[in-house]
Amino acid sequence: MQALPRKERERLRQRQEIQEAAQRVFSIRGFHNSTVNDIALEAEFGVGTIYKHFPSKEDLYFSLVENKIDDLGLFIRDKIEAQAAPADKIKALINAQLQYFQENEDFFKIYILEISELEKEIKSRLRSKILERYQRYLVYVSGIFKEGIKKGYFKKIDPLKMAVGLLGIIHSFISYWIQTDSSEKLTQNVDSIYQLIIEGVGRGGRFNKKGPHPPKGNE
Length: 219
Hints:
By secondary structure, the protein is an all-alpha fold.
């Protein structure tokens, strides 16, 4: 693969440094109380350099959200693809998503607690970007449930609805954890979420204390 020209490498380096500085500033001050000048000082760049890469504070925030969601998707897929059985893939998904949010708590706390206060137009743009990625994620997760149904691990329920239910439960646990001052690690909820899902969609007799096992014969 041909190396990027020096100017392009420099542009990407500056952009990344600005995003990292913005995340630190947002984490400390919150989105609404932060200014582009605060971010410029943290990044050790002039304000003009910030605006050269991002037209506004909102656009910089959007880029952070998109990057986090894309990174989360790659992180989850990597964990899932290391598993063979559909039920193991579901547990890996739950663990990976909780782990990622736990490790990026400061950033997601800003998003969850402050999105309701964003101006209507900005909120609409942000949700549009997130919705597109969320829908792709739903299709991916429903594919795991579809595979599990075919192999006899799960009940014959609409895979898309199972995916919506799973992600809804995960998001509820994450929101509760972020909005409370609990000393408990978010990843301590993996087994609880897994049991809620498996008891709801798992076929009777397919699961025991040692974990899932495939059906026999043509069951």
